[in-house]
Each structure stands twice: as structure tokens, then as C-alpha cells.
Design a protein that fits this description.
The protein is an alpha+beta fold and 143 residues long. It is built from three helices and five strands, in the order ααβββαββ. The protein has two domains: 2-58, Orthogonal Bundle (Helix Hairpins); 77-142, Chitinase A, domain 3.
Length: 143
């Protein structure tokens, strides 16, 4: 989040501000696309920076392992086997700001994560997903 704030505030915003400044010098702003879209982009940047700044202030960094690492909790890497297809999936349970589907980082608030939390290896969980009901067995937990 800090990297995104830096990118927006120190790199992108100055560029857009310069474009808006140059466009404003051209006179009639009502039909000046660079000015109109630049001002809109500045509002978007400012809004995103405010949101991220609040999230950073409220964020809690979890560095300690849970008391019982044999159970699934926040920040766990959980390996599950789909009972129907036999496919194996590895998920990491993260906060809503860290979700990354390409890395299989899923929100702690997702249906799969909610079903897994507090369970141990060899537990079978039933999950209702948009694609239908799934039966998963926990095969490994890592922190």
C-alpha cells in the first residue's frame, strides 16, 4: 500500500498536475479535454491516496505465528484437495487489501477461508461457492 501511495503521490500526481497546468493556460477550460480529464484524474488520485493512508494507519502487521500452528488461521498457507476432482490447491489467507488471485492469496472473509479457519489437517470442509458446493480436505498447513 505504501508503494502505491508513493507511486500515486510522488510520480503520477505531479505529471497530471503539470498536464492540467499547461491545459489551463490554453484558455477556455469548458472544452479542454486535457484539463477536464486531468482534473478528474487528480480527484481519483487524491481519493485513492486518502483511502490508502487511512488503511495504512489502521493496518495491523501480523508477524507472529499463531499459538497452535497445526490449525488454520490468518496468514496460513493451506493445501487442500478437492474431493470431487482430486485437484490440489494451495491458498494463502490474507487481508482484503492483499488479495491476489494469480498468487492464490484469498481474503480471510471469503467463503473458502471462513470454512478453513480453525480446522486442522485431514479435516473435511464443505464450501458453498458461486460455482457450486465443494468438498475440500486440508492436506497441509504452513506459516
Amino acid at each position: 500500500m505504501r508503494a502505491e501511495v508513493h507511486q500515486l503521490w510522488k510520480i503520477e500526481r505531479p505529471k497530471v498536475t503539470h498536464i492540467v497546468h499547461e491545459a489551463a493556460k490554453n484558455g477556455d477550460r469548458s472544452e479542454n479535454g486535457d484539463y477536464i480529464y486531468g482534473k478528474r484524474r487528480l480527484r481519483e488520485i487524491d481519493s485513492r491516496v486518502r483511502y490508502l493512508t487511512k488503511r495504512i494507519e489502521e493496518a495491523t502487521i501480523v508477524e507472529d505465528k499463531p499459538r497452535d500452528p497445526s490449525k488454520v488461521f490468518f496468514a496460513a498457507w493451506v493445501t487442500v484437495e478437492d474431493q470431487d476432482s482430486g485437484d490440489e490447491h494451495i491458498y494463502r489467507l490474507v487481508g482484503s487489501d492483499e488479495i491476489n488471485s494469480s498468487l492464490n492469496w484469498i481474503s480471510i472473509d471469503s467463503p473458502i477461508a471462513r470454512a478453513l479457519v480453525g480446522k486442522s489437517i485431514d479435516h473435511e470442509v464443505n464450501v458453498k461457492t458461486p460455482a457450486g458446493d465443494r468438498c475440500l480436505v486440508i492436506t497441509a498447513i504452513k506459516y
